[in-house]
């Protein structure tokens, strides 16, 4: 491939731009040169019956495999930077990507076309990116949200070029509006972490405070006593921060990016190496040690993934955690581990239930979908996490269904292998759910020398995965609105999104959001959602949509209203990701052909649903509407 591309250092940028201008003919906005297309790869496991995935020309822009019920892939744009870290910008249809400060980016600052940008705002609707300014190196950082929607990026790495070190940095990004038009990263020297952190974890607490723990004082293949940061702190900070956390001494060396999930009782589930604990957020101490998870350690560099399974009102919001995959050992001989463990951490006799995955996978991105299922994307089946240490990409996503059904009973498995991508996504890849029900997949930067066009070069292409629920014969529900927030709902017809309540929001941090009109849901308070449920048939030949309220006995069945936070995503860690089902307390059909009304009770408190912005969807019989942004407070 190197001979094909002819990439001398002094003309590489131009060569890449020329090649990709011809490849990406769908009109992505040009804000810099884009990366080359890597070789096509056969999907790793269970591919023998799929003849479509090796036809690169056919697959270039849309590729759906043998059945769209198993998902469809669309190539939609380029990221501009290597998407090592990613999160949705609340109340918009945009994503922010962050990467390491290195000669790797293909985004350049507007005021200086020779100066690289290391973060961009990616517009999902337009498939374009806008370069952002960073003052400190955010490589291997963590992140979360403040209740007002301000994104907070914490920690980072060493100084590079004219970007200063970011070990103890706090960076803030607020969305654009009429008052705040700059909407760029804000790094203040007077607001910093109390300890420098590389590979830390952030989790939002019940009051919106960010819990920050762990990491190392410098980059390394594995953590140890010399460089480890065995402490936690809060933002906004307590006077006594940081506080020593012996658990992180005891779980060395496999405890970088420790796993953390806020439980509905307000305490934290924390996992590192093979150990899980419950950590009190009132006494700030361990109140329960859980049994060890069978199998190898699951944290970096072996790198499994974890998710707090959907919190459902019909189950009294009992929490359950799922941890999957990882590498079997820290060596080039390592294989992708093929087991998941589930645990109800608050039960008195809590223990792990193990399940076999269809294939081994290290570095999985475990993404919650609005229907309550979990999708596993990206990763490898050989080596470990880290630069130059992973091969054998796993190209097929896997859907995990947490609940029992006739289908799971018949298959004797909760897993369903989906249609493959043809783009390898190895170390430094991301996946996250977006408002319309698809999943954005981006990134892959497995090489220390990022300018080298190796077997798995730095990846800039952005894909969208459309789950099977987008291709059923039953039309999706449609949330009605009176003023558009963030975006227009465009399926199956254009309607705006209902304002539940108007409020003037004072920004807590960042450049400032100013006074805004928002969709606000109050804790433990009933509100109404206007929604159209459809009967009829959707096929490739015709789309016949009949509102159910017009039909005699057309009442919808198995309806849910869900709140989803896709979290801050990096290194297979989805920080603060959660899905909360809300209690439906009333249903008022409109027999005159208008809209149905669901009476829904807001989350009971911040322990269940930390204050902030969520994607709200209405689900009928497992088929979700498109989402709309709402703010919970």
TrEMBL record:
The keyword Glycoprotein does not apply. It holds the Pfam family Glyoxal_oxid_N. Residues 29-56 are annotated as: Disordered. Keywords: Signal. Residues 553-632 form the Galactose oxidase-like Early set domain. PANTHER family: LOW QUALITY PROTEIN: ALDEHYDE OXIDASE GLOX-LIKE, SECRETED PROTEIN-RELATED. This is Galactose oxidase. It comes from Linnemannia gamsii. The lineage of its organism: Eukaryota, Fungi, Fungi incertae sedis, Mucoromycota, Mortierellomycotina.
């Amino acid at each position: 491939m190197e001979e094909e591309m002819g990439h001398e250092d002094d003309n590489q940028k131009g060569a890449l731009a020329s090649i990709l201008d011809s490849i990406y003919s769908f009109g992505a906005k040009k804000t810099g040169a884009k990366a080359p297309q890597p070789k096509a790869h056969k999907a790793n496991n269970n591919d023998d019956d799929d003849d479509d995935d090796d036809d690169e020309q056919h697959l270039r822009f849309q590729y759906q495999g043998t059945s769209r019920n198993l998902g469809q892939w669309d190539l939609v744009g380029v990221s501009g930077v290597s998407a090592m870290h990613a999160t949705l910008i609340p109340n918009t249809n945009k994503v922010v990507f962050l990467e390491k400060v290195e000669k790797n980016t293909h985004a350049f600052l507007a005021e200086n076309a020779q100066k690289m940008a290391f973060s961009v705002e990616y517009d999902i609707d337009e498939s374009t990116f806008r370069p952002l300014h960073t003052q400190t190196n955010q490589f291997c950082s963590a992140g979360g949200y403040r209740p007002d929607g301000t994104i907070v990026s914490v920690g980072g790495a060493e100084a590079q070029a004219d970007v200063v070190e970011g070990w103890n940095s706090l960076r803030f990004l607020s969305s654009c509006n009429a008052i705040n038009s700059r909407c760029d990263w804000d790094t203040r020297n007077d607001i910093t972490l109390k300890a420098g952190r590389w590979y830390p974890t952030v989790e939002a607490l019940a009051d919106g405070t960010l819990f920050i723990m762990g990491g190392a004082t410098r980059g390394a293949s594995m953590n140890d006593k010399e460089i480890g940061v065995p402490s936690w702190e809060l933002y906004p900070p307590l006077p006594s921060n940081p506080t020593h956390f012996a658990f992180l001494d005891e779980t060395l060396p496999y405890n970088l990016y420790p796993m953390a999930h806020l439980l509905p009782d307000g305490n934290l589930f924390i996992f590192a190496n093979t150990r899980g604990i419950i950590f009190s957020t009132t006494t700030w101490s361990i109140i329960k040690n859980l049994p060890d998870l069978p199998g190898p350690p699951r944290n970096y560099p072996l790198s499994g993934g974890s998710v707090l399974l959907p919190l459902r009102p019909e189950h009294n919001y009992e929490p359950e955690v799922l941890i999957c995959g990882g590498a079997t050992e820290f060596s080039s001989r390592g294989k992708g581990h093929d087991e998941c463990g589930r645990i109800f951490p608050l039960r008195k006799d809590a223990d792990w239930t193990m399940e076999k995955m269809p294939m081994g996978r290290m570095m999985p991105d475990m993404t919650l979908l609005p229907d309550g299922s979990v999708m596993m994307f990206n990763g490898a089946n050989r080596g470990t996490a880290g630069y130059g240490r992973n091969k054998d990409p796993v190209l097929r996503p896997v859907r995990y269904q947490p609940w029992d059904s006739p289908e799971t009973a018949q298959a004797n498995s909760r897993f369903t292998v989906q249609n493959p991508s043809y783009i390898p996504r190895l170390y430094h890849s991301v996946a996250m759910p977006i408002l319309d029900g698809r999943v954005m997949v981006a990134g892959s930067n497995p090489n220390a020398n990022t300018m080298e066009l190796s077997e798995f070069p730095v990846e800039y292409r952005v894909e969208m995965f459309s789950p099977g629920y987008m291709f059923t014969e039953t039309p999706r529900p449609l949330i009605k609105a009176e003023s558009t927030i963030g975006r227009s709902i465009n399926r199956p017809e254009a309607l705006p999104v209902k304002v539940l309540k108007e409020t003037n929001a004072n920004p807590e941090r960042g450049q400032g959001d100013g006074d805004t009109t928002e969709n606000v849901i109050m804790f433990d308070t009933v509100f109404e959602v206007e929604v159209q449920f459809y009967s009829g048939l959707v096929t490739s030949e015709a789309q016949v949509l009949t509102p159910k309220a017009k039909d005699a006995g057309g009442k919808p069945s198995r309806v849910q209203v869900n709140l989803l936070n896709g979290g801050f995503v990096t290194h297979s860690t989805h920080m603060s990701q959660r899905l909360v089902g809300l209690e439906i307390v009333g249903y008022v059909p409109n027999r005159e052909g208008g809209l149905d009304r669901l009476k829904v009770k807001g989350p009971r408190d911040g322990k269940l649903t930390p204050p902030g912005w969520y994607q709200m969807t209405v689900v009928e019989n497992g088929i979700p509407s498109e989402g709309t942004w709402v703010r919970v407070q």
